[in-house]
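This protein record is not my work; I was only asked to verify it. Take the sequence as given and treat only the tokens as open to question. I have pasted the whole thing underneath without changing anything:
***
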Amino acid sequence: MKLDDDIDRILSRDAEIVPSSGFASSVMDAVRQEASAPPAIPFPWKRALLGVIVAVVAFASAVILGFDQLVGAITVPLVPALEKWLDTAVKSPLTPASGWIVLAVLLTLLSMNLSMRFVSRKSGH
């Protein structure tokens, strides 16, 4: 039981812990600096919602069309106009992927245009 006695002796000491000089003032300076910082800019969820909805619809359409081409039959019918447009985009005469490339470029340009409009409105130009 020598080990237990040594551990008890070491743990029973009441050694006073003294912080280094300047510790309290440096902590208070950091607290004051953090308190004086401006609040974080909130994320514009309302503006991002449209892009998220478009992305979800595009992803779901791509998955459904990919599944349709893989299996050959689909159980969930698409809106006829959307199905015709996506079918035309996929079966472009240039290359099989050119319709998707055009769609990606158009979505990119649209999102950049909307972003630039929101930024210019915020900055006052």
